[in-house]
Design goal:
9 strands; 2 domains; Alpha-Beta Plaits; alpha+beta; 3-stranded antiparallel sheet; 45% helix; single chain; elongated
Length: 184
């Protein structure tokens, strides 16, 4: 069964399929999709795919758990360089990091959609007289979570960088700061 999960994410449910067979099918999908190109405005673009394989075990209690571990395996495949697959393994130490990154990715995307980032200005004070009387500020980014807590970037920027969201954040910062400058 093939289903679109959202955006550019798809899920395939394969009945009576062991891990070895799933890996062979995943590699065939990667190879076939990798051979496909599409043309946009006379420019060819190649297509890449990352596949997360989630075995259905007794530990899986519902479809949400299954999708969560498939997503974790998929992010691990993306981190490995794309155009590859990853099989979810509960005992792998990096899974906690990948799962934590996934949580940040969801929160970052939500913050971008709901305008839940904010900027603070921190005045820069020179150590010695520079002869420049103007005020200088460093602009600091913060994320406001659902409970209203202010989160510093050291918590979420590593995930944003790993999952290619940093440009979206940079764009938000630039647009918000320029709007603020224009207003004041």
């Amino acid at each position: 069964m093939l289903a679109r999960l959202g955006g550019d994410e798809f899920g395939i449910l394969m009945q009576h399929c062991d891990i070895d067979n799933a890996q062979q099918i995943a590699q065939k999908l990667i190879d076939n999709i990798g051979r496909h190109q599409f043309v946009w405005v006379n420019r060819p673009f190649s297509v890449a795919v990352s596949i997360g394989i989630a075995p259905i075990t007794d530990a899986i209690k519902n479809s949400t758990d299954l999708l969560r571990i498939a997503d974790i395996a998929c992010y691990a495949a993306k981190d490995a360089g794309r155009n590859c697959f990853n099989v979810y393994q509960e005992d792998v130490l990096d899974i906690a990091k990948v799962h934590g990154d996934m949580e940040w990715v969801m929160q970052i995307n939500q913050a971008l959609e709901t305008n839940s980032f904010c900027l603070f200005g921190q005045e820069i004070q020179p150590n010695a007289d520079t002869g420049n009387n103007g005020l200088h500020y460093e602009v600091l980014l913060r994320l406001i979570d659902q409970s209203g807590k202010i989160i510093t970037p050291n918590a979420f920027l590593p995930a944003a960088e790993s999952h290619k969201l940093i440009t979206k954040i940079d764009t938000w910062v630039t647009e918000d700061h320029l709007a603020s400058l224009a207003e004041h």
